[in-house]
Fold this sequence. Notes:
Layout: H1 5-19, E1 34-35, E2 38-39, H2 68-80, H3 100-105, H4 111-116, H5 118-135, H6 137-143, E3 147-148, E4 151-152, H7 155-165, H8 167-175, H9 190-196
Antiparallel strand pairs: 1-2, 3-4
Helix pairs in contact: 5-7, 7-8, 7-9
Amino acid sequence: xxxxxxxxxxxxxxxxxxxxxxxxxxxxxxxxxxxxxxxxxxxxxxxxxxxxxxxxxxxxxxxxxxxxxxxxxxxxxxxxxxxxxxxxxxxxxxxxxxxxxxxxxxxxxxxxxxxxxxxxxxxxxxxxxxxxxxxxxxxxxxxxxxxxxxxxxxxxxxxxxxxxxxxxxxxxxxxxxxxxxxxxxxxxxxxxxxxxxxxxxxxxxxxxxxxxxxxx
Length: 216
């Protein structure tokens, strides 16, 4: 029965537009139209708001806040601008810029398939962060809430830094209180990620030593 909702909704929109004669003077609000269980609620400027003579046109932004989705999307954008098919100059792959050895640890061996499979890349991210959380579970408990080099340490910052440098390098950074650090080939350090990705809610992540990437 649900399959018929979308065509009916679209037909309703067409009928309304035809009966109103596409009048430019009449505005129809599509913001609350429902299609299945999802509501279309995009805030789109009207034509009058886009007048070339106006300089106070509001900006329209999408915010993912500080939840888990916001965390992984922010990290993916920092790594590759969110592009799934990227291979950087050092051979790191995909949206989250995985190294081949890390992929093998979480059960991914065919990098060509990996680059073309967006669902597998998301699954790989989830598996890797779960594995890192297990490895760093004691350090998260010990250092969360403390300050290193003026930056408050949070679980999300630790997990992001582990994605960049590996959990071993993050342990060294934390246990030396920032004296021992790591930088990637572009000069980004563990401390950079601890700061940049601080304060996201990663409680959703379940620590799992044996996590593997699976599309199912």
